TrEMBL record:
It comes from Gluconobacter wancherniae NBRC 103581. One of its GO terms (molecular function) is DNA strand exchange activity. Keywords: DNA integration, DNA invertase, DNA recombination, DNA-binding. GO terms for biological process: DNA integration. Belongs to the site-specific recombinase resolvase family. Pfam families: HTH_7, Resolvase. Gene3D superfamilies: Homeodomain-like, Resolvase, N-terminal catalytic domain. The keyword Transit peptide does not apply. This is DNA invertase. The active site is at residue 11. The keyword Lyase does not apply.
Length: 190
């Protein structure tokens, strides 16, 4: 019996799979594999399990092309592997299915466009970050330790009886964070 098996992926734990899950269920998927993993990550255990579950005659269904491949070449490789196994591929948003020659052509065109779109987004993000830096703004996480805390820690670590691990615990940070912020590497006591 030929199955329609879905694969849904979000990039971060903050995002939700509801939209993808609903679309895949409406498309008749009897089984849906879901995971939260960056598209760039090579470690995607649910995708691996999904591919193991697929048999000749089955169809792998995704909500959008970029949910499956890390890059255009990765996407093309996955679809080629599926085709070698007699498995069709379908992307709902782009209305692509590789069960026909025309569908295969459309797949390759849309895969290239999806890669192009991701590259544009990446370029815009980099340009935006550069513009923000030029205006004196910094992105990223706030430092774990403030200037006053760094001064206190330096004073504490001057005492040979005080262990770095104890200071790290006291301030709720790792030893590595202390070394990074304070720049002190204290010799270990025997």
């Amino acid at each position: 019996m030929n199955q329609r098996i879905g694969y849904a992926r979000v990039s971060t734990e903050d995002q939700h799979l509801h939209l993808q899950r609903d679309a895949l269920q409406q498309a008749g998927c009897s089984l849906i594999y879901e995971e939260a993993a960056s598209g760039k990550s090579t470690v995607r255990p649910e995708l691996k399990q999904c591919r193991k579950a697929l048999r000749s005659g089955d169809t792998l269904v995704v909500w959008r092309l970029d949910r499956l491949g890390r890059s255009l070449s990765d996407l093309v490789q996955i679809v080629a592997d599926l085709e070698r196994g007699g498995i069709s591929f379908e992307s709902l948003a782009e209305k692509i299915e590789t069960g026909s020659a025309a569908g295969k052509l459309v797949f390759h065109v849309f895969a290239a466009l999806a890669e192009f779109e991701r590259n544009l987004i990446r370029e815009r993000t980099r340009a935006g970050l550069a513009a923000a830096r030029a205006r004196g703004r910094r992105g990223g996480r706030k430092p774990k330790l403030g200037e006053a805390q760094v001064k206190e820690i330096r004073a504490l670590l001057r005492d040979p009886e005080i262990q770095v691990a104890d200071v790290a615990r006291r301030y709720g940070v790792s030893r590595t964070t202390l070394y990074k912020h304070v720049g002190v590497v204290k010799p270990r006591h025997p």
